[in-house]
Write a structure and sequence with these properties.
By secondary structure, the protein is mostly helical. The chain has one domain. 53% of the residues lie in helices and 0% in strands. The protein starts with 22 loop residues before the first helix and ends with a helix.
């Protein structure tokens, strides 16, 4: 029998990030979607689309950055509305791209809300989103 058995514990030198810590603390800042998110001028979309919303009627709308981000991801990744919404709930880079600060495992919206957003911003709004996507890709 060993009576004086000592157990040596090794302390972790780097704590594991919490699921609820900031996405900027968890993600690789060299990931293509992380870089792209920081190149896009999201204010352009806010300025162009904010007048299309009424602040006092009905349920609050989804954030403009979220909706524009989902549409850009949809086109960049060649996804359906349903697929981009589903993948968003599983992908922290998608969520960071769309302006989220923390990971959220739920869907950001119903896929049909992308249809409503496209109708709300119209052809000119979709062209603005496309032109901003092209602008940042030409910078590379």
């Amino acid at each position: 029998m060993v009576e004086n058995l000592q157990i040596i514990m090794i302390n972790k030198t780097t704590p594991q990030p919490s699921l609820f810590s900031s996405l900027t603390d968890q993600l690789n800042p060299r990931h293509p979607l992380y870089l792209l998110a920081n190149k896009i001028d999201w204010r352009r979309f806010e300025e162009a689309f904010s007048p299309l919303y009424c602040a006092v009627n009905g349920r609050p709308a989804k954030p403009i950055r979220l909706m524009c981000g989902l549409l850009i991801l949809k086109h960049v990744r060649n996804l359906s509305d349903e697929s981009v919404v589903e993948q968003w709930s599983e992908n922290a880079y998608y969520q960071y791209f769309c302006g989220m600060l923390e990971f959220t495992p739920s869907y950001p919206c119903n896929a049909s809300e992308l249809v409503h957003f496209r109708k709300r911003v119209g052809e000119n709004g979709m062209e603005l989103i496309l032109s901003e996507s092209i602008r940042v890709n030409q910078e590379d």
